[in-house]
Amino acid sequence: MAAVRKQRLGVVSFLNSRPLICGLEADPRVELRLDVPSRLAGLLERGEVDAALVPIIDLLTYQRSWRILSDACIGCDGETLTVRVFSNVPPQRVTRLHVDGDSHTSVALARLLWREMYGVDLELAPWEGTGAQESHAVLLIGDKVVTQRPSVFDTETDLGAAWKTLTGLPFVFAVWAAPGDFDAAPLSAILSAARDEGVRRAAEIAEQVGPHMGWPVAVAKRYLTQRLRFTLTPRAREGMARFLELAKKHRLIEPQRELVFA
Q1: In the predicted model, is pLDDT for residue 121 greater than 90?
Q2: Are 45 and 64 in contact (CB under 8 A)?
């Protein structure tokens, strides 16, 4: 009997993905490849993985026929802790934003929020991790917001909290996606089961994994158990639809683009 090929999964390398892959490291049915969010879409596009935890904006750009294949996700319903604009001026005075190359969705979200809330069309520049004194604002995402927190800025804007203020809705940063012809059902069940176990054990994961990634245990526990959301609930889908609507309004994506569910 021929061996069944493992499903190759591209996974966010930050702490926020750990509840979604609980137990999968030892699951013989899957193989994990960890990378920063901005690179995962490329892995999927090149066929280096079968499915990936893709930034939501990457489902809506280019001519990709990808589908959302699971109800597992990385999202928030208010403050995130790890998606923040640091600045030396009040947010309404930010006009130029240095952006973290690890992110795509958060960059689009920042542009959208500043246009909607302040009427400002942000000028974007890459963030190299240096020259903070010359920058009046920088967008950072992921573990580094906690583990390498910049000390030269005196104002912080959490983008999850700002989205909640603007819309009253949750925000979804990343979802499991695969090409349109991918047989989603078997993997979808695996991913949902891993997520359920990961949510149940979130505090334990924070305690075991957080310190190895530079997180204080108490902060990691609060992050995984209180700040993040891991399920595409009806309200989360409503938040995704609102983001899609506003991204089209501000021409961040083409008007014909839609989210497709398996």
Answers
A1: yes
A2: yes
